[in-house]
Write a structure and sequence with these properties.
Layout lengths: L6 E6 L3 H11 L6 E6 L2 H6 L1
Parallel strand pairs: 1-2
């Protein structure tokens, strides 16, 4: 049986300090959620 898939969340913001704050606040969920942080719409589309 396959393990359940993690929820994937993509955070997009052009302010690096906002992304850093989000990254810190989401750290406790890293085992449950696949979180990614990018600085532009173009990067988001690549993800």
């Amino acid at each position: 049986m396959k393990p359940p898939m993690k929820t994937a969340i993509l955070f997009v913001d052009d302010e690096s300090h906002v992304l850093d704050g989000l990254r810190r606040s989401m750290r406790s969920m890293r085992h449950e959620w696949d979180t990614r942080f990018v600085a532009s719409g173009a990067e988001a589309l690549e993800q």
